[in-house]
Amino acid sequence: MNVSILTPETRRYMLTTVMLLIFSAMYAQQFSVQNFRHLPNDISAYIQPVKDLNDEACALIKIVGSRDFAFSTPLGIVKRKNDVGETWIYVPRGTTQITIKHPQWGVLRDYRFPSPLESRLTYELVLSAPVAMPRRRVPPMENTAVSYPHTYELTMQQLPVPAWRRPRRPKEKAAWLIMPSIGLHREEAAGGIRLAWMRRHGIYLHALSDFRTTPGTNGQECDKNGLLPGNALPPYYSGRSEKSYYALTAGGIHRIVGNFCLYEGIGYGTRTVVWQTDEGTYLRNSDYSSQGLTAEAGVMLRLRRFAFSAGVLTTGGKYWMMNLGLGIRL
Predict the structure, then answer these.
(1) How confident is the model at residue 20 (pLDDT cuts 50, 70, 90)?
(2) CA distance 3 to 48
(3) Residues linked to residue 32 through DSSP beta bridges, in sequence order
(4) CA–CA separation, 181 vs 303, rounded Å?
């Protein structure tokens, strides 16, 4: 007579027990991000900003979960604060992902946010801790019923919010900028000052002059060869020349990324060059003089309370000048 060592009921029970043990071990080592969202009504990061090394306000993530978690991001963690029931971490603007570690539950590496984090905004990240499965009592051999007391919930990250539904970016704090400047053209130099008011975008007024004047010419002109209009021979010159320059421009300043800004403006300027003849009269040199529309453009870098600028300025498209500035924000 053939007798099976393991009955079908026994094999089924053993297989079920092994699978439950495997799932229990796997489940006990996992934790996940249950939810991540922007808190539009939370102004903690706006009224009490924490600034990074670039003097720019950070984004705030309020993490709901155990205090044993450790966090890191590609741009670093500026500050961590343990509050009641949650942990606050301040991260630089533009942070896109975070790594979460726990001494018993392992690592959740490079969790990616739906969009880069914005300065002065507050976010909430909820962590779900693993739930230990209860110990199962071994049923009698004759009881072949198998129960599954746990169900596994599949969570998914919050989908990106459409742009038209996102909260408006908080306005940056307005600041005044006072920047002395210097214009350079070959061996010539002119001094000036730039006054600006700005948030993310701003306006400015720029005045530049070499603080010189030129004698009157009674409307008489010559070209770069010293010839008067309609004359074939030039007059005799003493070799003395006088120069003067001034310009006034206005325009806008725009913060593009981080503390890097661009500026552009237009206005009016005039550069006058006169030559003296042997008779003591002066002639305006039309080739070396220019007046009319003045335009400028350049870049600006803000470092804490200081600002540096470099750009070019032209008057009438004929006279070009490099412009440098060093100022302070108030």
Answers:
(1) low
(2) 78
(3) 128
(4) 17
φ, ψ of residue 15 to 5 degrees: the values are: -65, -40
DSSP 81-146: EEETTEEEEEE-TT--EEEEEETTTEEEEEEEPSSPPPTT-EEEEEEEPP-PPPPPPPPPTT----
As given in the structure block, the two tokens for residue 326 are 């060093």
Whether 24 has a pLDDT exceeding 80, the answer reads: no
Is residue 191 classed as helix, strand or coil in its secondary structure?
Answer: strand
- Of 247, 243, 230, 234, give the one whose Cα is nearest residue 284: 243
- Amino acid (1-letter code) at residue 75: L
Q: How far is CA 207 from CA 247, 266, 294, in A?
A: 6, 11, 11
Query: 97-120: buried (b, 16+ CB within 10 Å) or exposed (e) per residue?
Result: ebebebeebeebeebebeeebbbb
**Whole-number Å distance between alpha carbons of 170 and 119:** 9
179: helix, strand or coil = strand
Structure tokens at 320: 């070009």
Starting from the edge strand earliest in sequence, which strands make up the sheet with 70-72, in order? 70-72, 97-102, 106-112
- Give the model confidence (pLDDT) of 192-251 as tens digits: 999 999 888 999 999 999 999 999 998 899 999 999 998 889 999 999 999 999 999 999
| pTM of the complete model beyond 0.85 | no
Average pLDDT in the 126-153 region? 56
